[in-house]
Amino acid sequence: MTIQLIFNADDYGLTPEVSRGIRDAHLRGLVTSTTCMMNLSDTADEIRIALDLTPALGLGVHLTLTAGSPLLPPDEVSSLCDDAGKFHKLGALIQRLEIINVGEVKAEWRAQIEAFIRAANRKPTHLDSHHHSSYFTPKLFRAMLELAREYDCAIRLPVADKAHLAVIGLPEAVTAGIQKGIETLVREFNPRSPQGFLAEFYDDHATADEILKFAAAKKDGTFEIMCHPGYCDDALLAISSYAHQREIELNVLTDLALQENIREQRITLVNFAS
Questions:
Q1: Of the candidates 164, 248, 157, which has an alpha carbon nearest to the alpha carbon of residue 199?
Q2: Measured between alpha carbons, how far is 37 from 84 in angstroms, rounded to an integer?
Q3: Range 3-269 has CATH code 3.30.420.10
Q4: What is the DSSP-derived secondary structure letter of residue 267?
Q5: Distance (Å, rounded) from C-alpha 26 to C-alpha 194?
Q6: pTM for this one?
Q7: Distance CA 10, CA 35 (A)
Q8: What are the E-state strand segments in 29-110?
Q9: Are 24 and 250 in contact (CB under 8 A)?
């Protein structure tokens, strides 16, 4: 039995304290990978800190449509922005899916990837997306897959089992729509991705038992566990309802007993570069 786990921490760059928590979860715990929100003001600096302090931490891009402002001028991506030039919030984006311009989405996401390459001086290890927005429609997923092919990197595939491709972790309002197209797109692009994904390590389910139960059910392959560690401060409380929970996740992911249990099961920790 050979199991490899990727512990990917979403939201790198959301705030400096979230970024610091992710680095600590790597240095003292299980986190092997993170994805960077390149449209936020602190992220490029936080990437440079990561390259210095956590060189083994995998760095990908957290494609963003629902937080902050676009990198491109708002008049170039007008279908993605509100009147203030900011991205629509999650609920508003879902309501506007039929009228957003996917060409604008792809251009903005390319700008975010290019911003990462400028900051890190290398391509991302993989692509995923904030609030899973890249999986909301087949057209959005195709745009992500085309960019992953263009930049030769892996992706997060939000399915429990790659053999069956039943999507998990997405808002209920979009699940049926993407489910209809995911098999065709995965077959067409054959993206590099783990064999399965754990979305449930979140909020009340962010426990050591959730991780161990997931690992025990696997036999062979590479699997991703999504997580959101960080330190909570006023800056985070001002922008996110998922705030104090990040410190709980950090404590679980740096728990020494859990790390020993993972080692005893001969599970290898890797990132998307593998």
A1: 157
A2: 20
A3: no
A4: P
A5: 20
A6: 0.97
A7: 5
A8: 33-36, 58-63
A9: yes
